Amino acid sequence: MTLLTGLSAFPITPADAEGRVDPGALRVLLARLVGSGVDSIGLLGSTGTYAYLSRAERRRALETALDATAGRVPLLVGVGALRTDEAVRLAQDAKGMGAAAGLLAPVSYTPLTDDEVFEHFATVARESGLPLCIYDNPGTTHFRFGPDLVGRLARVPGIVAVKSPAPEPEGVAAHLAALRAAVPEGFPLGYSGDWHAAEALIAGGDAWYSVVAGLFPEAGLAILRAVRAGDAAEARRLDARMRPLWDLFRAFSSLRVVYACADLMGLCHAAPPRPILPLPEAARQRVAGALRALDLS
Amino acid sequence: MTLLTGLSAFPITPADAEGRVDPGALRVLLARLVGSGVDSIGLLGSTGTYAYLSRAERRRALETALDATAGRVPLLVGVGALRTDEAVRLAQDAKGMGAAAGLLAPVSYTPLTDDEVFEHFATVARESGLPLCIYDNPGTTHFRFGPDLVGRLARVPGIVAVKSPAPEPEGVAAHLAALRAAVPEGFPLGYSGDWHAAEALIAGGDAWYSVVAGLFPEAGLAILRAVRAGDAAEARRLDARMRPLWDLFRAFSSLRVVYACADLMGLCHAAPPRPILPLPEAARQRVAGALRALDLS
Questions:
Q1: Across the interface, do B83 and A112 touch by the CB < 8 Å criterion?
Q2: Mean pLDDT for chain A overall
Q3: Is B16 left (phi over 0), alpha (psi -120 to 50) or beta?
């Protein structure tokens, strides 16, 4: 089992209104993950609001997580930034501190070309020495990776995996086949987007980068284990059971919904960074209902 | 003539590879604009790479521009940031230093809702006291303003204008009518996107936020004056003449093209901030050809 396969759990990063990370609250969340059986923790992913935190606060979050996990779960750390030099510094920080790998998204303001994204990734890999997972997340970066670019990047030393948004179930086999044809053998192909992840795993995806597992690792692990046992029917049954939560993720974004979950469960009372607002009360009540229905609260 | 009408010229912000602004090079560019007759200078717009510059460097650019313009041309300054508190600080800086107005884009990573954008803008206006122009630029922010939201924002004290991307010529009259119906009387409606700006002005737009005028103010002023003189045919002739440059703006982005222009003209030799790369040589040659054909070099 290589590092970037299996289930990677993405927690939120509790912080105050000024963007200062709360190490105590982060430890509470990480304690649910350490020893749960997840294959890695995706610290400072999009759900971990990396884009909204300063370099110093990102260091503080990683320091906290390294201490809380004590080597028992590898840490995959978001190192994306708008500027290439800043992403290099963040990746150097993560490497120097002891992260297992970095998650690099092509964060953009001016839309980027394929060649610009290639140079950005190659520079961060080369200058940091941190193994990198390509973070393909057009919903936030507005950059679309084609198989050709993924294939070019997969041959850059230090670029070790890719995380793609899971397509609609009827398209996932073709997506996987196109990527497999483009990358070297054994290059792990993983998926995010919890509501389509079960089908992506059944189709042969190597990893699930999961928001739900950041709070409820068992819910993710149960689905992953059913797939690994060859029991697609059981995986689909477990996935269908989660549909009330998936529907809320799709309606309000998984980020806003997991902040509400953590608050409703009394795990931490952090709000997402403004301008992102906490869910309005009516939506929050729907989240509370889903947690009760799923026996997750 | 209110502040945010007429021609606003948007220069690049020359900076080194580490993102340090070059005041001397910025002065060379600003000298072309002061006294040219442009109605305002759009400092630190998208073309001015505000999103890629630190707060300290944005202060340095504004300090340079205030000194170089000496009150002769009002400065409209980009104050956008991913976090609301950071945008507040940038707007407070601009207000305290002497900018005439701020240009605020809903910079996003996690996609924002209308209510989130409303709160973001209202907070920056309230906490800074800086008059704000709504910067609607879905090509970089990936947020789409509808007339309803513009109408709500136009009633917030301190929000004084809107800059929209100029639609295709056949759609501009309807776009203007929809916005006019949503905002209070006299609220200036301006447009960016140089290649459609002439038609937007002919249709009744109040302002042109122009990249080309950041380097070639006369080219923009000639079109604006023809429109103001009621000579749409002359405005269209002048606009059609610029088509070689518009085609390059559309193919490679106006930002990359004006960096190449400034370099080819010997005005400054700055490169855009990485990951954005200078134009490849073949494209650069096309830019050189267009400058020669237009007698602009």
A1: no
A2: 97
A3: beta
